[in-house]
Fold this protein.
Amino acid sequence: MEHEHNTGRRIGGTFLSVENISLAFGGVKALTDISFDVREHEIRAIIGPNGAGKSSMLNCINGVYRPQQGTIRFDGQAFQQMDPHKAASMGIARTFQNIALFKGMSVLDNMMTGRSLKMHTNLFLQALYVGPNRREELEHRQKVEHIIDFLQIESVRKTPVGRLPYGVQKRVELGRALAAEPRLLLLDEPMAGMNIEEKQDMCRFILDVNDEFGTTIVLIEHDMGVVMDVSDRVVVLDYGKKIGDGTPAEVRANQAVIDAYLGVAH
Amino acid sequence: MLYRESGQFKTSYAADQQLFPILQDRIGVLTLLAVALVAVPLLASDYWLTAILIPFLVFALAALGLNILTGYAGQLSLGTAAFMAVGAFAAYNFQLRIPGIPILVSFALGGLTSAAVGVLFGLPSLRIKGFYLAVATLAAQFFIPWLLVKVSWFSNNSSSGVITAQPVEILGFVFDTPVRKYLFVLVVVAVMALAAKNMVRSAIGRAWMAVRDMDVAAEVIGIRIMQTKLIAFAVSSFYCGVAGALYAYAYLGSVEPDGFNLDLSFRILFMIIIGGVGSIMGSFLGAAFITLLPIFLDIVLTDGAIWLGLNLPSGTTSMAQLVVFGALIIFFLIVEPLGLARLWQIAKEKLRLWPFPH
Ligand SMILES: Nc1ncnc2c1ncn2[C@@H]1O[C@H](COP(=O)(O)OP(=O)(O)OP(=O)(O)O)[C@@H](O)[C@H]1O
Ligand SMILES: [Mg+2]
């Protein structure tokens, strides 16, 4: 896995910033006063030991969880609490740590579903499957097929996702998120549980998405090698607190980070 | 002809998005329609039409309605018969109280009334799931027939709420004989089945399945969960409502609220379990199976008893029916939750590769 993409030039201004976010579940403090920013076109990694609050952070960004305190600023708008629908309509898409595909549907239908917000014909036209609905289905099918080609999953497009191997499912879930043509992509451990080749492919896809479409990416990953290779900057969480923030090299040299990871096999 | 798709290359996505992309399927469906429209009316006896084919089609439509809600959108309902009752009684009242209203308009309004009631009883689905939702729909199942008996206005003050359906007349043509009734039901059911198929392969169908399979992911994609569920309740109840109207107007002629009881709801639920949850064709297979099973069992048991020289007590057939139903439902729930439709699909997949297994 070579660090091939040249980041410096294309990264823009602050696109997303989370400010003083605190989130608790009853007595469990999942996040305490977390702040960091994400710049446009950047790949930003979030790392930290198990239970550090990484997934909770993503869940706050797109409104699945509602933090008790703090502000989320995205694309110039400030939110106390994000709402999942609002997040989606502003161009935030994501994948989940435990694959959250629609198991009974085909790969194609899963990815078409990713484009839900872009489809507008009414129920009546859908029942008749004429005119605008037929055109719309076709148009979106073409868009989705590009992504299917890009992810090299042509051969399984009609297969119900429940029957696919784990690694392919992870890829389909990325595809479903990409189908929405997001401006911000949140990936929760996209490579967890994969073998080396699958990881390499997934890294390639992530870098390509970032390069070709300019998509800003926030990525949770445990594999430090991967993090060092793909990310522009890294946030480190531990027990719900931020203990490090900077380039991969800076973070790796940070004593607090080294301490947090001591004794933990990664 | 062999069931093969080799040689049938789709050169455009439009060709691939046809209703039936495989040629043999197209031929099969057209043949079936031709048989249903031409051969059956010519050949079937009145008994077959009135006692088997018409109820089969009506139940298939109700099963389709339930399948949209339960199979596609994942919301379990035990109120199917109640929504059928709403459709039947609403259509009756529209016919009765608005002079000169076309029968098809009454049916559509009956369906819409049922849709509205369905949405009302679907509201709890926004907060509760699975078993608890089933209990909430059970409330509809008990409340609606009770209300229809209690408020005699609904049945135009007839005793015990019995209504007698008005004649079905379209543009001066009266659908009074079994063949005519059959053709009327067939056309309504075929058109509505086509519409259902179109919905489930469009955005709304994908939204239903997304909510069914993984609601958090659906929400994150931007699907509005509440709206999607309520549309499922509305469309499903519309289908059940029209099925109820057909049940009254084309099958039984006169119906009473108590006829739309929990038994009927369960029967329709069994149809989709045996036929295939989340399959349009499964609704038809299940309805056919459950309509034909008693007749088949009756023949087997009666002839079998004669052949064996036994004298079976009366009621044996209905007992045997219950036992076979029970066994089949357990079989399908455990072994093949996707029902006959899935078995059919597996058979087709095998056939596609035959005679080479790989
Ligand atoms: N829905 C929830 N209800 C209650 N507690 C929760 C919930 N989600 C997360 N938590 C708690 O918040 C803390 C942070 O969890 P989170 O899943 O964000 O960690 P993580 O960094 O993603 O861990 P992992 O590497 O294991 O995925 C944990 O203590 C967890 O138990
Ligand atoms: Mg996590």
In short: The interface with chain A takes residues 13-14, 17, 19, 195-196, 198-199, 201-207, 209-210, 212-214, 216-224, 231, 235, 278 of chain B (CB under 8 Å). Chain B has 14 helices and four strands. The pocket of magnesium ion (ligand 2) is lined by residues A 54-55, 97 (CB under 6 Å).
